[in-house]
Amino acid sequence: MFLLPKGNPLFENLAATKLKLPEVLTKLSNGGFTGYASFVFQTSTVILVFETGKLVSALHEEQNGKRQTGFEALSALSELLVTSGSGALNVYKLSKDLTMCIHALLQGDTLYKAQELKLIDITSLLAKIKSDKMNGCLRIYTDEHSAMIFYKDGNPLGFFHDGSSEIETSSSESQKIAGMPGAKIDLFSTLSTEDLMGVNLLEVTNIQKIWDTSVALHQSEIEKINRDREERDKKTAALKLAEFEEQIKIIVGEYIGKVGRGVVDKALSDNGGNSCLIDEAGSVKFLSSIERAAKLLISGTNTKLMLEKLSAIITVAKSEF
């Protein structure tokens, strides 16, 4: 994303995570705002350009250079506001003429793109911009430096370069970059300010519906994630409980013998399944069932030792589930 002139900042670094898109757009529209709003997220940026409260362009650009405009850009912004855990809103007020140039830079017609400056008669190009009374932006850049010249009716409105935050009246930096090896240009044109005023994305786009859809989809995704997590937790708990049940059977088998597994199965069945092992009341009933069966099969001393061992591991298990 190009660096843009900041103009008069109305908001800077406002946390985007708590913002609702319909409310933001309504506020800027009703206030007759002219300028641009920049939503900066970790992996992408969205620029909204306003002319006297009318949303004349929307651009979403990802780090890989992929771009979306109009409805798609607004949908992407809505999704980012709903789902991102970070992000910042910056709002800068500009003159109508400069706003027109920003629109040209972001979404205007591309007349030249990455054209090497040494292959162009720049004097003739500047003369054509003037004679055609062009509205737009000429970007001059190298891999390390960049400058922009904004035009209205073929006349330069001002100059902007990397490292500055304001529109400047001097062309020295632009001329300096133009003289560097490997310098290239982009040239973008757009409609006049008056023609742009006929465009308003807010009138042809249902912002509330876009927002509600994003919220609903996000909520649905959260619910699915929660369901999946609960299912995984249940499976993990069931597996862990089955392993604990096997420990119980091994201990009982050590004292009672081969019939020990059957004794445990019967006690579990009588007390609602292996979940009783980690239930306060259920574990007491389970141990009572084991004790009754053991008294018929082994000595009282061994029964006591077995129950003490079972009670100890059941107590530990309760704290782990």
Summarize the structure.
The protein has helices at 21-30, 70-83, 96-107, 122-131, 172-178, 193-196, 201-204, 207-256, 260-270, 280-295, 300-320; strands spanning 8-15, 35-40, 44-51, 54-62, 67-69, 88-93, 109-116, 136-141, 146-152, 155-161, 184-189. By secondary structure, it is an alpha+beta fold.
Could you describe the 3D structure shown?
The chain is of the alpha+beta class and 321 residues long. It folds into three domains: 1-107 and 193-205, no CATH class; 109-189; 230-320, no CATH class. The protein contains eleven helices and eleven strands. The strands form two sheets. It has a six-stranded antiparallel sheet, with helices on both faces. A five-stranded antiparallel sheet has the order 7-11-8-9-10, with helices on both faces. β9 (146-152) and β10 (155-161) form a beta hairpin. The mean pLDDT is 91.
Note the main sheet: 6 strands, antiparallel
Strand order, biggest sheet? 1-6-2-3-4-5
Tally of helical segments: 11
DSSP strand count: 11
Q: Tell me the span between the first and last alpha carbons.
A: 51 Å
Radius of gyration: 35 Å
Q: Per the principal axes of the C-alpha atoms, what is the gross shape?
A: rod-shaped
| Alpha-beta classification | alpha+beta
Q: Helix content range of the residues, please?
A: 40-55%
**What is the strand content?**
15-25%
Low-confidence residue ranges? none
Order of helices and strands: EHEEEEHEHEHEEEHEHHHHHH
